[in-house]
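PilZ domain-containing protein: structure tokens wanted.
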Amino acid sequence: MHVHLRQHIRTCLNCKIKISHPSMEDIYATTEDLSDTGVFIAHPDMAKLTVGDVVFGQVQGLSDNDDAPVLMMEVVRISSKGAGLRFIQE
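Answer:
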């Protein structure tokens, strides 16, 4: 029996996030799971993106003035529920 072990541990973390891409309106969505290398964003509009697209994400609601860092991420997987994104180190 073959068991697939993930390379990076996933943490179930639900937080609000804004995803920005030039081809569409900003998406306000919820993170579903998070690892050191990426995050899954649950929102049906994420399926409008294509693998390889670069998006920008900013966690919402951390402080009153929404000054959370903006993270650059690449779409690596798309499903009907949303998209898996890989963090890009600048």
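The first strand starts at residue 11 and ends at 12. The two ends are 40 Å apart (CA to CA).

Cheers.
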